[in-house]
Amino acid sequence: MGKFHVLILLLVFFSFSLFHGGLSRAIKGKSQGGSEEEWGYVQVRPKAHMFWWLYKSPYRVEQPSKPWPIILWLQGGPGASGVGIGNFEEIGPLDTDLKPRNSTWLKMADLLFVDNPVGTGYSFVEDTRMLVKTDDEAATDLTTLLMELFNRNESLQKSHLYIVAESYGGKFAVTAGLSVLKAIDAGKLKLKLGGVALGNSWISPEDFVFAWGPLLKDVSRLDVNGLKKSNSLAEKISQQLKDGQYIDATNTWSQLESVIGANSNSVDFYNFLQDEGMGPVALTASEFSNGFFSVNRYSRYLSSLRVSPGNGDGDLDILMNGVIKKKLKIPDNVTWGGQSDLVFSYLAGDFMRPRIAEVNELLSKGVNVTIYSGQLDLICATKGTEAWIDKLKWEGLQDFLSTERSPLYCKEDQATKGFYKSYKNLQFFWILGAGHFVPVEQPCVALDMAGAITQSPAAAEAS
Ligand SMILES: *[C@@H]1O[C@H](CO)[C@@H](O)[C@H](O)[C@H]1NC(C)=O
Ligand SMILES: *[C@@H]1O[C@H](CO)[C@@H](O)[C@H](O)[C@H]1NC(C)=O
Ligand SMILES: *[C@@H]1O[C@H](CO)[C@@H](O)[C@H](O)[C@H]1NC(C)=O
Ligand SMILES: *[C@@H]1O[C@H](CO)[C@@H](O)[C@H](O)[C@H]1NC(C)=O
């Protein structure tokens, strides 16, 4: 009942002429919280429809020298929905109980959630052959979407766009960053790219699989026998990658996860201080074999973090296929998450491919790159992230590595929340006490970080 009140639209109109394709349209509304929202589909290729949802911040600060930023949030998976998970579970204006989120990143920027790549969340294909098989294909589609949104909108063009990614989204972010730059240079895209931020991102799978065993051994979650088994599978993956056997490497990765699960009594890959399935819902066997990046796993883990006493609500799937689907006027036959598993399978040949070279390229082109990492993450562990950073060929690397870092605090809290350092256009945030989902587990310091990443005029006011 209360939900519907929150969702009342003060202003709704359809504009069928804005975008081509029968399903493509922009819908505009205003939430009770005061943030203006727009959403719609863009047909990025024939039979391939991508869904976007833009929130204009009610906290906007006008400062002539600093444009109000837009964050494009890219979820991982591949196949996990930014419109669902990133929005309602991490940084959007409302949580899954449709209550306001105090730590929403709208306090620092406008938020653009996109269900990327096609087949994810509300995005869909009419023919599964239209699903993407590589990060580059995904980047091309995303660039097409940005051309539709930005090219005819002078007000959007005034902002800097920051691509902020989590997990597998980091691979999409770096390939999309390069694709966006190319389109800008070619005069095809009117947009100012502010930077790219990689949160616990799967940039170099090989470095992560080599980090898992030693990290878990150091914190007593594996013994020397488990460590040996883990390392030997990591070696196998390394060889498969050298030989270009990417699908085999994906299969070995899955095998390695099972071995670690069995030898650690099911450590949680998103926070190694926890057991997998510690949340309210036990995992079924089929979900277990489905890979740790599965969409179900994400939302389970996140709902296990949520404290909602005496409230049975909050199941993301019910929300996204219920009141939100209705509000957004998603076509009846589109199921949120209905094609997500296919997205993962179609990308199996690219899943283990590293994207370090793309980070190099962004850095050498002068794009601001932020890397942030939750201390307790296993799947994209800080140890693995530091290992791939060491492999950068960027000329500033040695100076970056020798730069001293500074502690981070939040508000009046005296406790150390993390560390930070930057050199030229690369900056790194180490976030303490958070696993894979930094904005969920450390919302205060994550919000400050969002302000810093986007050079938000709201951040300048707060400090
Ligand atoms: C909400 O945020 C404000 C300022 O950012 C803070 O003072 C307050 O304690 C927060 N409230 C909750 C419930 O977290
Ligand atoms: C939904 O129905 C429309 C119209 O019949 C069709 O074009 C579209 O392909 C369908 N979508 C899905 C995901 O099946
Ligand atoms: C484009 O800009 C106008 C303001 O000029 C705004 O009202 C409109 O909602 C924008 N469209 C999109 C898709 O953001
Ligand atoms: C890029 O980073 C530098 C150094 O932190 C900063 O001064 C500049 O404003 C950033 N540019 C953008 C577009 O965010």
TrEMBL record:
Location(s) in or outside the cell: Secreted
A GO cellular-component term linked to this record: extracellular region
Span of the signal peptide: 1-24
A GO molecular-function descriptor: serine-type carboxypeptidase activity
Keywords recorded for this protein, A-Z: Carboxypeptidase, Hydrolase, Protease, Secreted, Signal
PANTHER family given in the database record: CARBOXYPEPTIDASE, SERINE PROTEASE FAMILY S10 SERINE CARBOXYPEPTIDASE
The protein's name: Carboxypeptidase
Biological source species: Hibiscus trionum (Flower of an hour)
